[in-house]
UniProtKB/TrEMBL annotation:
Enzyme Commission numbers on file: 3.4.21.89
SUPFAM superfamilies the UniProt entry points to: LexA/Signal peptidase
Gene that produces this protein: LOC101499930
Domain Peptidase S24/S26A/S26B/S26C per the UniProt entry, residue ranges: 41-143
Organism of provenance: Cicer arietinum
Protein name in UniProt: Signal peptidase complex catalytic subunit SEC11
Amino acid sequence: MGLVSDTVDSVKSIKFREALHQVITLGLIVTSALVIWKGLMCISGSESPVVVVLSGSMEPGFKRGDILLLHTNKDPIRAGDIVVFNINGRDIPIVHRVIEVHERQDTEQIYLLTKGDNNDMDDRVLYNYGQNWLEKKHILGKAIGFVPYAGWATIIMSEIPIVKYILIGAMALLVLTTKE
């Protein structure tokens, strides 16, 4: 009788260790993603080091689904620069080109006007009511590079949320059923 109970305890112990190993593996995957994101934040100087172009407003330069790499540095923003900005009260950042820059020497304040390359009008219609210019605090970063079409997965998951849940479930199932 003792041999059977020892075998059962041994099997339970092995199953527990396998489950613990899988949970730790999942934790390492999530932690690795966070560390990579934080590392990119430190390198780029931006709280959002990469963004996905969500609309066609910047075509033909950037297409929907392109991923932009951002950088924040001390260099001044000039007309022609492509910036990513966020308007107070809006969750989704916007990628557009700076078309006008006004600098006040007495306060060192910078005012920017932006426009999408594919848009007919400037972005004043996108800004908050009564706001005619962007300030430095609105800018998340300048585009320094891009990866074409690599952001389509993000667009699909945001437009069809069930896809996101299916992928998360499949990844969790894969981690839980892997025997390594």
